[in-house]
Description:
Largest sheet: 7 strands, parallel
CATH architecture of the largest domain: 3-Layer(aba) Sandwich
CATH class of the largest domain: Alpha Beta
Number of domains: 2
Radius of gyration: 19 Å
Low-confidence stretches: none
Strand content: 15-25%
Helix content: 25-40%
CATH superfamily of the largest domain: NAD(P)-binding Rossmann-like Domain
Bound molecules: nicotinamide-adenine-dinucleotide
Shape: globular
Number of strands: 13
Amino acid sequence: MFRDSYVGKVVLVTGGAGFIGSHLVDRLIADGAKQVIIVDNLFIGSEDNIVDAVAKGAVFYNEDIEYKESLEYIFDVHNVDVVFNLATKALNYSFVNPANAFTTNVTGTVNLLELQRKGKFKSLCHFSTSEVYGSAIYEPMDEAHPKVPTTTYAAGKAAADLAVESYVNMFNVDAFIVRPFNNYGPRQNHKGYLAGIIPITAWRIHNDIAPEIHGEGNQSRDFIYVSDTVDAVVKLFTVMPVGESVNISTDNQCKVKDLLQKILTHYNYQGELVKKEARGADVLGHNASNEKVKSLIEYNLTPFDVGLANTLDWYQAKFSG
Ligand SMILES: NC(=O)c1ccc[n+]([C@@H]2O[C@H](COP(=O)([O-])OP(=O)(O)OC[C@H]3O[C@@H](n4cnc5c(N)ncnc54)[C@H](O)[C@@H]3O)[C@@H](O)[C@H]2O)c1
């Protein structure tokens, strides 16, 4: 064991009103964290996602991790033991505001590392992304795969990873990195250009708007159910060596065009699928190696068709009010 469990501890989750963060918050509460503190500026997160958590005693701060004064205030009020750092602005935002997509990832993470270096909390679990690897140079991509980010979002995430590693190296802080691949599941944002492919397609079909495909849809992704990611992260917490990173992925490669077909079939959609231009910086393939995570924990994965059906049913219920 590299660190004590978060059970009975004060745990702060940045980005905790977002998709993965809100599921993580629920799990931390269920597992018996002493107190869970959520820091989220609601850039894309929603208070709807944390209604239950707040009812169970989680404390919510609508604050921005890029402002160190905001973080300093929160860490002065609470004796935080553990931080899970998930706050970020979605990849698509980097096509609109490339500079801030970069700085949110870097500045927010460095602000936290500075607080950790000064003894304001003990352990940091930092969320990276498969996007830091860029298009595969070899497959499956393991943790040693070169980082060749193709967007400012991914460049910011890669820089944040390097910041975590350098603070471990220089100041012996207790930090490690989890690197999820593409997540899907309930509570992923469905609104506007920052929406994930599954929720936006579900939303369009529900509103009688033709769903879209970018390019031929031959780009493939490794889709993992959000509760499986959260389960892996909480199990990894005690056993992840300091300074190391670990992929959290499946062996379940799915082409975007095949995913769309599964969604259309689930909703029995008979209308057209609108073809849009491919996005230039989209990486083509993300086939992960999950050997490391399997060697560290008992790794349970939900079959894709089961997780997808749960997710699509959840969105249908949500959109039907
Ligand atoms: N969803 C995926 O498929 C995926 C894949 C790989 C890695 N990740 C990583 O997992 C983490 C969570 O991703 P997600 O899909 O839940 O994203 P999300 O966008 O749903 O959640 C991120 C949250 O951060 C908040 N936020 C943004 N900027 C902030 C700021 N400056 N200060 C405070 N809060 C801020 C947003 O409001 C949002 O609630 C991220 O670090 C992401 O890079 C996600």
